[in-house]
Every structure is written in C-alpha cells, then in structure tokens.
Amino acid sequence: MGPIRWLSWSAVLSIIFLGACTGPHSYRSLRTSSASPVWDSPPLYSHVPPLTLAIPRLPSPSITASLDLLRQATHQAEMGRDREAMTLLGRAREVLLSDGESSMTPEVARLQVAILKEIEAFSEELAAIHAMTEIPSGEEGSLITPEDVTVLERAIPHIPAPGVEPEISYDVPIELNRTVEAYIELFTTRKRGEIASAMERAGRFLPLMREIFAEKGLPLDLVNLAYIESSFKLNAYSRAHAAGLWQFIRGTGRKYGLKINWWVDERRDPAKATTAAAGYLSDLYGIFESWPLAIAAYNSGEGRVLRAIRNQNTTNFWKLRLPRETRHFVPAFMAMTIIAKNPEKYGFTPPEEQPWAMDQIALPQPADLRLLAQAAGVTTEELRGLNPELRRLVTPPERGYVLNLPLDSEASFLAALEQLPQVQQVVWRQHRVRRGEALSTIARRYRTTVDVLMEMNHLKNPHRIRAGTSLTVPVPAFTVAQAASMTGQAEHVVRPGDTLWDIARAHQVSTRDLKRWNNLNSARIHPGHTLRLHPDTPEASQVTWREHRVRSGETLSTIAQRYGTTVALLMEMNRLQNPHRIRAGTRITVPVPSEASES
Questions:
Q1: Predicted pLDDT of residue 80
Q2: Minimal CA–CA distance to 333: which of 213, 254, 229, 463?
C-alpha cells in the first residue's frame, strides 16, 4: 500500500480523537494505553511521528477493539497482504457495530461514525486496487509432454507395421507409419480422458476456426493443430511462455497483429488468435510448399527448419534431423487428425459443435468487468469466458473497446448501462506525487507497472517525476459491493459472515435506515434473517446526481452525512485530493434520491 495509506488514516484518526474527546471523561495517552497494546509498537514508517493523542478512557470495548483491528489491517496492507487486511477490516466493522445505539454517549457515537468512515475508505481502496490485479489464468495445454515422448520413443520400434487405413479424405498429407500409430495408441489409451475433454471443448471453437481457415484458403484439417497445441484450453500457457488456443509466443503474436499488453492478451481471443494462426500457416506454406514442413516450422520456427533443410540437403520431413519435440509434433498432429475424422471408431463422442455467435458492443468508456456483467445479466465468470483476452477486471483505457456479450442481449445491456451513475464507470483517479516517491513505488501501490504509468501519463523518463505532479493511475471507482446495488432487490437474506455495515454499503443505504426499516435495536443480525432494503412505500427512491454548493463551515464529512453517502465516494466523484480542503462556494456532485427537494 505504501506510506500514503498510513499518512491518510493517521490524519483522519487525529481528527477523530480531537473531535471526539471533548466531553468530561478521564483521559490518558494513547501510547501508554494498556487496553490497546498494538498501538505501543513503533510506527510503520520512520518519518511518521508516533501517535500520542489522548482518547477517552475505554470509551467502549468495541471501539478499542476496532481500533486495534484497524491498525492490524493497516500493517497487513503495508506488507502486501490485502486479503488479510480485508478480513481484519470486516472484523473491525462487526466489532464496532456490536454496541447498541442506546448505550452510546454523543461523543462515542461520533467517534464510532468517524472510525466507520475510515474503515470504509480503506476497504474501498483495497477493493479498487484488487480489481486491477491480473485475472488468474494459465494452465498447461499441450497434449504431448516430454515424458510422453520418452515413452513413445521406447514403444515405436515395437509397434506392428500399420495396416491399410480405410479410404478417408484428408486435405493435408497424412501418413500412417509406426510413429503415427504409436500416437494413436497413446491418444486412445493413456490420453483417452484428455482427448475426450479436448473434444468436448473443441465444439465451441471448431466452426469458427473452419470459417476463418476457409476464408484464408487453408486446408480445414489444420484446425486439428489446436488439439496438439492447447487441447482447446483458452488459458493454455506453455513453459516457453506461449499462450492461447494457438500457443503464440509474444513476438510471433505481435507480428501477426495480436495486441499483448497490460490490459489484454489477444492470444487468448479465439477469433483473433485463429486469424493470426491462419496468417502464419499461410506464410509458412508459402516458404516450404509442404504442409509437414510448414507444421514443423509452426512448432519450432521457420528459421530452424530452413537451417536443417540447408545443412542436411533434404526436404523430406521424415528424414530431417529436427529438435525432438518437433519430430514428434507432426506425427502427433497426423494421429489426431485421423482420430478427429472418425472419432466413433476410436470410442470417442464427436464434438458437439456450436456456432460462434454473440453480440458485440463498442463501449463508450472503460468500465469494471463486474459492473458490465451485472448490466449483461450474467456472472463475472461468464463474461470473462466471452472475453478471455482481458487480463484485468476492467476494460482497456480506450473509447470504443469492443466487448463480447451473450447473443440477443445488446438491447437489455445498453438499457441497463444507461441507468448506472456515470461515476461508477470511471476507472481512473489522480495521484499527486509526494516528496520522495518514485514511479516504481506508485506502481506497487496501485498494483500496476511503471510502463503502464509512463504510457498513461506520456512520461519519457521513469526517474523524472516531481513532487506535486498529478498522475493518472488505474483504479476503478466501482467495487463489488456497489455492483450489488444494481440488482434492484427489495430484500436481502443474511448469509454467514454478513454484517449490517456490509449489507448497507452494498445496497447504498445507511445502517440507520436498515435498522429503522427492519425494526432492529442493534446491529446484530443472524444468518437466514431477511432484511428489507427499501422503505415500506409503493415506490422505492431512485438515486440521481446533482450539484451541491459548499456552504461556510461545511465539511466533506457533514455533506456526506447529509446525503447519506461516503466521503470516499464524494472524493472520487469530484476528484478531490484532500477531504479537509474544500472551500465555501465550491460546487461538488452529490447523490440524492430523485424525490429529494432542492436545497
């Protein structure tokens, strides 16, 4: 997280304590409080002065415990352990809300609200940063392993001479020899389960691949290369750092028009990668005028095959001394093509082919993938499956990015998207460089890279950034909790681990309203309990956006309380750097119910 978070919440706690400690309580130093031993440890950064502010003597066990948990969460985040930090923040909220309102003094109630706001802001920052991390993906996809090759090399001399293969039409040269027979044996015995699974996956992609290959004038049997390359796994990733159905390495992928950057990896897009593979295979055949040699070159590179031909003075694939993997790649393809032509003969169920059909929408601006999934009426995982090229939980920073959607969902998607507040679609924020900060530390804080920050801010030198400079950084304002508010639910069934605070935040209502609507005397809720999410009126209020002119004496905190929102959201909406620096007369955007009166 970096020192920014620690400085931020230290400042907030200073305000909390100075503002809350005004009643006739006994005080003692925070540094010497035996009730809160965590605070006795040294500050996380040596340049941050230790906290020595006074707080009420045990104002509430829940407040003492929540502050303890908040400090622990800060430490976990500083160490890069965001999940642990989020867990601690959830516990801090739950503990803080465990006291009933009736038992609180006004000072303690104000202290509770202030701490809750800090927990909320911290949680939102962690959730937003987490949204930018790379989507976990990558699994071994190659059908043939080095261990398989070793077994085959031992078995080939003992394979009987091939019989006569029934007349089957192939549009690439297929030779049935001992090596090919050995692969057929391997695929129908030890690899039977893998082949069956690959055939099941292939049905989704084969029609698309044949269509693209036909447009390029390529033999359609070449689609069977995808079995050997990736087993038709979208997220296939090899030890050589090749990716996708067609296992392109970065250099070759980019040469054939595939975009590979921090945001997307088009090697994982079936249509784009197949188009690139068709172009590469066409060029290889133009070089070698032989499909066995072109396929060998697809595996090991045209340069290596050309050198072998030149040095050995032969263009007969079966006589060429090529790398071990390549020597086995071509017969493996031939064996798979034989099986794919007649799967029932070998005991396989043919792929259940499906047309490659979906809606495509050019997005007006970048957006969080979870937000888009809500608008499309699908899960995030389903939307990711339709857009496997995306490496983040947000779309790239460009207008007009084309998103794949379920077929016949365009109209409903656009209607749902228009209903979203504009602020929830923003995925950038401004970061003001502080003295001593380097681009690398800023990149670590936001879980991005120096290259991305340089590209987004048109920087020429990563070592030349000045304190006070504003940088655009990738942090989506939209979080998972906000996504839940789109469902339009009227009720929420409490699940294990839910707290009243989590539910209120997810549905953009206040805990006070949740208590009032559900006749709750405290924040205690139990799994299975059904909560009303709207007042018991014929029409639930809709949130809209308007401008608020800051009056003399108003703070961002009081404005947030007035409109039932959060300081963090107001700062995000209005691109504010400091919650304590707003001037009277400034106009800021705020969320209000549509029936609220103007003020």
A1: 63
A2: 229
Q: Are strands 428-432 and 402-405 parallel, antiparallel or unpaired?
A: unpaired
Percent of the chain whose pLDDT exceeds 90: 31
Could you give the domains of the chain? 3-131 (no CATH), 146-346 (1.10.530.10), 359-423 (no CATH), 428-474 (3.10.350.10), 481-532 (3.10.350.10), 543-593 (3.10.350.10)
- Inter-residue contact 432 to 465 (CB < 8 Å): no
Q: Rounded distance, CA 463 to CA 466, Å? A: 9
SS3 content of the chain, % helix, strand, coil (to 5): 50, 10, 40
Q: Which residues are catalytic?
A: 229
- Among the listed ranges 20-34, 63-77, 231-245, 333-347, which one has the minimum average pLDDT value? 20-34
Higher pLDDT, 599 or 242: 242
| Cα 455 to Cα 435: distance, rounded to the nearest angstrom | 22
What's the confidence (pLDDT) of residue 211? 96
* Stretch 485-489: mean pLDDT: 40
Q: Where are the beta strands (DSSP E) in 476-570?
A: 491-493, 530-532, 543-549
Q: Distance between CA 189 and CA 183 in Å, rounded?
A: 10
Rounded to an integer, the average pLDDT of 489-499 is 67
User: Tokens 């948990």 identify what position?
Assistant: 69
Type and span of the H or E element at 472: strand 470-474
Residue of 549, 562, 567 lying closest to 596 (CA atoms): 562
What confidence tens digit (pLDDT) does each residue in 27-86 have?
Answer: 222 222 222 222 222 222 222 223 333 444 556 778 888 888 888 888 777 666 766 787
Which amino acid is present at 531?
Answer: L
By the 8 A CB rule, do 126 and 82 touch? yes
For CA atoms 475, 476, 480, 482, the dihedral sign is positive
User: CA 568, 572, 573 angle in degrees (round to 5)?
Assistant: 120
Determine how many CB atoms are found less than 10 A away from the CB of residue 292.
21
Tell me the sheet residues that pair with 56. Answer: 27
Choice among 37-41, 176-180, 301-305, 521-525 with the minimum mean pLDDT: 37-41
Highest-confidence segment of 17-21, 273-277, 351-355: 273-277
Neighbours of 64 (CB within 10 A): 18
Cα 535 to Cα 57: distance, rounded to the nearest angstrom:
39
What span, in angstroms and rounded, lies between the C-alpha atoms of 123 and 87? 10
134-159 burial code (b ≥16 CB/10 A, e <16)? eeebeeebbbbeeebbeebeeebeeb
Amino acid 11: pLDDT: 42
Residue 293 tokens, joined: 């040699």
